[in-house]
Specification:
Elements: E1 2-6, E2 12-18, H1 21-24, H2 30-44, H3 103-119, E3 123-126, H4 136-145, E4 153-157, H5 162-168, E5 174-178, H6 184-189, E6 192-196, H7 197-207
Parallel strand pairs: 1-3, 3-6, 4-5, 4-6
Antiparallel strand pairs: 1-2
Helix pairs in contact: 2-3, 4-5
Length: 209
């Protein structure tokens, strides 16, 4: 699959880059995509929820009324869940929501996500670009040139670039990551994927192992 390379002004450079069919043109496996996104969202959950159960409540341990003769059910503790202020029954406890997926399935899911974007012509290949200083205005000009001003975009770079990252940090609809951090969730969550030429080689290397 060939994709035209554009510059930061949105103009074609006259060059094309060849995208690997084994990564950008496979038949998407929707179940693998579902599992990978589900794992990503599960791993983001803190799992620090905690309700006070009977043993966690502070209060007297004396028997609150005699066993018989009251005409009501017997009760042995003010901390019982049936009383106001008592412990909660089967309340949430701290837990880890993460689960394991094998590497081959995760690789298939990421290949499927990229193939979906490539099939819909939602991948832009950009010449290597950099800013002399961090400036949001410069990044907005790039977005305007690529017609991405009001679209969710994901910029994939070959390596960390502090100036580019800081220039985009205040823009809610734009995300900048390294090629090594590309995953199924952020691929599908963006309307357009903007990849630098050098990042393509790294992505293909990571997903072909």
């Amino acid at each position: 699959m060939k994709v035209a390379v554009v510059d930061i002004k949105g103009k074609k450079t006259g060059r094309n880059v060849e995208l690997s069919d084994a990564i950008f043109a496979i038949e998407p496996n929707k179940h693998a995509v579902y599992l990978d996104v589900k794992q990503h969202l599960a791993n983001k959950r803190q799992g620090t929820h905690k309700a006070k159960e009977r043993a966690d409540i502070k209060g007297s341990t004396r028997k609150i009324k005699k066993q018989k003769g009251t005409g009501t059910a017997r009760a042995g503790s003010i901390k019982s869940p049936i009383f106001r202020g008592g412990g909660r029954v089967f309340g949430p406890r701290p837990r880890n929501y993460g689960f394991k997926l094998n590497k081959n399935l995760k690789r298939l899911a990421r290949q499927s996500a990229l193939s979906m974007k490539a099939k819909g012509d939602h991948i832009i290949v950009l010449e290597k670009f950099d800013f002399d200083t961090p400036k949001t205005k410069n990044f907005i000009e790039v977005l305007k040139a690529l017609e991405l001003k009001n679209k969710k975009s994901l910029f994939v770079l070959e390596a960390s670039n502090k100036n580019v990252y800081l220039s985009s940090r205040n823009l809610k609809s734009t995300n900048v990551i390294n090629a090594s951090r590309l995953n199924t969730y952020n691929t599908l969550n963006a309307n357009i994927i903007v990849m630098s030429e050098a990042s393509i080689e790294e992505v293909e290397s990571n997903l072909s192992k």
